[in-house]
Fold this sequence. Notes:
Number of strands: 18
Structural class: alpha/beta
Number of helices: 10
Helix content: 10-25%
Order of helices and strands: EEEHEHHEHEEEEEHHEEEEHEHHEHEE
Amino acid sequence: MEPFKVTVLGCGSATPTLRHFPSSQTVEVRGKLFMIDCAEGTQLQIRKTRLAFSRLQAVFISHIHGDHCLGLIGMISTFGLLGRTVPLHVYAPQALHEILDIQIRTFCNDLSYDVVFHEIDTRKAAVIYEDRSLTVETIPLKHRVPCAGFLFREKPTLPHIRRDMIDFYHIPVCYIQLIKSGADWHTPDGDVIPNSRLVLPADKPRSYAYCSDTAYLPELHKQIAGVSLLYHEATYAKDMIKQAEKYLHSTAEQAATVAKQASAGQLLIGHFSSRYNDETVLLKEAQEIFPNTSLANEMMIVDVI
């Protein structure tokens, strides 16, 4: 199975602390590298991961709050200094477009590559990126400014060839792709070997949902039903629910409720308020509802399974 992993670069909220950077992650799927959100300090964090800047294909920005996008122009500038020539695609709410244009003209007016902006509609779920193996879909969220999460889904793959059966029946290599596509094998003696004996089931497609920042949404689980890994903000503990409602954020209990309703495989919580010196209270609160919950932390790598 090819790699599908999420690397947490920052999981704090608006106020940076000595323990957490603000929001940013990378998502690596089948050799392709993407970024979700790009706050201050993101470049430094990427350096720590030793991921190559040149591999980054696209950046997805959830909303136009500084703790999710203020690191973008610095990273764009660095790419230019490193001689990047491949276009960088940026998917974000419309409000960022004009801001980014001004920043590029001011700080990066001689870039060696194109920054291609794709406006997203935060009000509806829609596929905004697609290639042969992957789709990325927006997840409408509820925050103080237009905001969307992102759902990464693998496309179904073909079944696995049973090498022992291929060798046993002396099936030519040139026929393997047809067998993967469902063909039976006809032996020289006229016997028909059913496809089911020649292949093993394909890997189950994996998926990752990123939901930050948002108030609790009772219907959210429907769009992300069965997701392999869910990242959901948990800015506050449940005793701060009034604060969460005021600023349109979620509690750890609410994040776990979404994961349970969605029948998610794993839950990763983050976007912690700087008031918490120890997020264990948030972890315990979430695990009471959804046991397979983990706390996000910088440089944490989570395999999507």
